[in-house]
Amino acid sequence: MKTLSSLLFYILLSSLLSGFRRAADTLSSNGTITYGETLESSGQSFELGFFSPNNSGKWYIGIWYKKFPEIIVWIANRETPLRNSSGVLTITPNGDLAIMNATTGDVFWSSNSSKNEPAIVAQLLESGNLVLRRKDDTTQNYVWQSFDFPSDTLLPGMKLGWNLSTGTNRYITSWKDDNDPSPGDITFRLDNSGMPQFILRRGSETIYRSGPWNGIEFSGSIDWKTVYTRIFVYNNQELYYMNGVVDNLIITRLTVYPSGSVRQLILKQGGFSWTVMDSSMNDQCDDYGLCGANSICKTKSRPICECLYGFVPKSQSEWDVRDWSSGCVRRTPLSCLQDHIKFLKLGGVKLPDLLQFSLNKSMSLKECQAECLKNCSCMAYANSDIREGGSGCFMWFGDLIDIQEFSERKERYIYMRMAAAELSKYIQVYLRTEFEFFFYVGQMINQNIVLA
């Protein structure tokens, strides 16, 4: 092991001999990167080097788009910036990447790969992934890779989610603000409670969720198959989401912002402006729990919040002024007697949040209904997987939170527990004339509501 003084001498000498700027994609074990020097990926899509956001006096090693240097997609030392430009990125004698102060030798960041393999090189791949690999190994058996440690951006090929074998959770975190890349309080991660769903949080507060995975997609998300692919893997070893590229002429990234939003952006090759293809804030209904408990948010309605069938506003005066936070309560109390209970089938919705729930992946829908009927606390049920006619059983207990209407997705159903007397009231109100009968049936069909 080299002494600190000899290592510093080696760093300074290597810096002088390496020239002011490099265009290679690989850093060898006897090389360094200092301010003004960069690595460039083989196709010149990405660049790595030192930067100081808005001349803040804080210095970081980052990766950015070669053509858009203002868009930083990864930062090594976002929690431990250098206070001047005298930093150096090097490979230590035991094979770790490290950011050091070239004058004092203080280590500000290390990859901590703990492999103790001196024959290591660092390479910036065309995907934007910075990897440590054995010098003669051209496989993807990397010693370390930046894709395992996301910053605020998800690039194609980067996994967002869990290595269930090791317990590693990869998620993205916003900058503290537009000029400070240290970790902010906005996170976007794949939640592993019941069926997976994406959760956007400010601290511990949920501000958006995608809806649970239903075997095909996340129940509240938009699919852009013609632009990019969504790869979802869920097995005993891994649970992760990944963006794939459909057209090599299109660049895409997913970024979480300090303002509290996450956006999927694309750029056509040769273009100069990014287009937002999807966002956590597509409309007001994406605001988590906007309408309160036991309600549904309908983007195309005015007002956008309505109580679920059989429920009324808990505070009508608040609802009159568009304050829906108190939510809705049942108009008719539920009985535990099974012959006093019916289920209302509501389609085309993002399923309620998984707060108080149970999941049985082997049950049929009929068995799920029977289980819900036997449990007085069960408020609703649904298939957990909609493939091949549906399977699995979700049951919700307590209030139903964050239901959103998607009229174009009628195959997504939830069955809500209702008092049989409540349904009789609907009949008494709407079936006064033959015309009103057909009007009522038509309304139920239009809103995907049927009795079960």
From TrEMBL:
One Pfam family, please name it.
PAN_2
The signal peptide stretch is 1-23
Record's keyword terms, sorted:
Disulfide bond, Glycoprotein, Signal
Q: Which residues form the Bulb-type lectin domain?
A: 24-145
Its GO biological process annotations read:
recognition of pollen
Please give the PANTHER family that the UniProt record associates with this protein: BULB-TYPE LECTIN DOMAIN-CONTAINING PROTEIN, OS09G0551150 PROTEIN
> Per its record, how is this protein called by name?
G-type lectin S-receptor-like serine threonine-kinase At4g27290 isoform X1
Q: Which organism is it from?
A: Olea europaea subsp. europaea
